[in-house]
Design a protein that fits this description.
- The protein is mainly alpha-helical and 193 residues long.
- It is built from four helices and two strands.
- It has a two-stranded antiparallel sheet.
Amino acid sequence: SGVISGRDYVGRKYNVKLQQPLYNAGELKYTLDQAKVNLEIASENLFKTKEDYTFELTKAYYDYVKAVKNLEVQDKLLKELEKDISAAKKERDAEVLSLIDFLNVQSQYNQAYYSYLSSENSLALARSSFLQLLNLSEAENGSIKINTDLSFKEYKVDLEECIKLAYENRTDLKINELGLRAAEIGESVERSK
């Protein structure tokens, strides 16, 4: 405020100061390049996390299928041995079978029964692991039907081609290569300052 030509006035003054360097030896460009590489690294890390989860889930699924199939085999074996033990008891009662042969058949049955119980436990563990990866409880499992019927296809695979594809698509290698690129760009940023 003040007086000009005998009149009072009220004034305001605003200032804005901007600075833009005309030349910074590529620092901004290198910083942008480094940010782009870091974004690629983050994207690859996310992809790797998804791949790891897919692998764990696939492995748990096949462990579950294997446990189901193993229990089926053990159940079939146990039923066959139940017939054998029944026949052996009849032969032993008729004194046609010696005690040592009867005990041998009974021992085979007991071993098969133990294997059956072990298979049941393995199935329970495989099921629990699979449900845990799906983030489901045993109570919620009733709504899920797990298909254990598998069909197999034979593939002819060239080892050299597999190795080549593994190197091209291995997420860990991509992340490390991008990390190296980010470090090289970071070095360029520092040199440009």
